[in-house]
Amino acid sequence: MRKELQVAALENGTAIDHIPTAAVFNVVTLLQLQKLNNRITIGNNLKSSKMGAKGIIKVSDKYFREDEINRIALVAPNVNLNIIKNFDVVDKKKVVLPDEIIEIVRCNNPKCITNNEPMKTRFHVIDKEKVELQCHYCELKIKKEEVVLI
Amino acid sequence: MSPKSLVNIGDYSKEDIYRILRAASLFKQNPNRDLLKGRVCATLFFEPSTRTRLSFETAVNRLRGRIIGFSDAATSSSTKGESLKDTIMMVSNYADIIIMRHHLEGSARYASEISPVPVINAGDGSNQHPTQTMLDLFTIYETQGTLNNLTITIVGDLKYGRAVHSLIQGLSHFNPTFNFVAPEELNIPDKYKAFCNNNNIKYREFTDFSPESINNADILYMTRVQKERFTDLMEYEKVKNVYVLHNDMLEESKENLKVLHPLPRVKEINQDVDDNPKAYYFQQAKNGMYTRQAVICDLMGIAVK
Fold this sequence. Notes:
By secondary structure, chain A is mostly beta strands. Helices cover 7% and strands 38% of the residues of chain A. Chain A has 2 helices and 11 strands, in the order βαββαββββββββ. In chain A, the strands form 3 sheets. Chain A has a 5-stranded antiparallel β-sheet with strand order 2-3-1-4-5, with helices on one face. Chain A has a 4-stranded antiparallel β-sheet with strand order 6-8-9-10, with no helix packed on it. The radius of gyration of chain A is 17 Å and the shape is elongated. Chain B is α/β, with parallel strands linked by helices. Chain B has 10 helices and 9 strands.
């Protein structure tokens, strides 16, 4: 049987592969893809030998900065980024959780100043492996499964 | 360089703490000085706290500084919906330093980031109250002659007690040994046990307030067990009289022992302890004023001699 690509190939741009299916639309938001005019293909619930099911996002003619791409590390830490030029993969990247997360996560403490004042949230990543965050302001520690995106 | 604001006791190094304690002992010898003459200090109490506010304001008054501010958010424009940022920006136009208490956690950190003048955190919700810790450290230093290698027994509400958590943090530089005495429901949280383990701090846990937990201590730090902290009121009824200090319990205690309490006290120290020379909580409260004088001058870059 002929192996077909599940999502059309990219000539130039970035292909984000192996996104957990539940995180695909979070990735869209975190990368602000809704604001782009580039051609974007989003595939979800595709077959994956590694994951069972996965999502893929392909963005034409767009190469993300590292700080942009690292925003998705919280929801999809194991994605692969393929940088494509002229239909060839010229570079592969992994996402890395940054030391600080600004404006992405909401603090779970209702009495935290960040939930009561028009300001950016700010978290320190205190454990990169287990993904544990600490609010810079109220000092609340937040575990991976408790993370709520803004 | 010394820190620009005092938000969290953890922001202060061992050297910073010693520098404050040295200045505080000079203020204790003579608290009435002209060091803040011509300066304006703002006390912004978005949440009322008469005890803390009076201590700060007396500290400033004895240094001949002037005070502006409010003692209750009801009299500030935050009731009109003004943001904390706008209040801080406005007040920093007028004052040389801001002392603030706020019910929201992290408010003092945020204020210190936006304010062009130093900010002292006088309590942000249940998060931090660093001048309480500083005065506790000063009192321990004053009564023991050192901060190093002491055994500190902490009794009462170790789960929610803000003063307790900060004290553990503040003493962490000085190789302490802790006895934690608390009912099951108000046990020391795991994160503070982890903090002790990570910093090689020795501790033991007790659920009964036994002679064993008192007799080897240099400092007995009592706190209030509050009824509203209990989910199970039966549990409260069971323990409410267990964590109470009576004078006869001090009979076998060390000669140098001092009993401290962040106050207000309710029943956890029986009044018969008050006349014991080991009772030191009222002097401790008074030390708050000297310590706050030291913190204010330090943040304003004023040398104390």
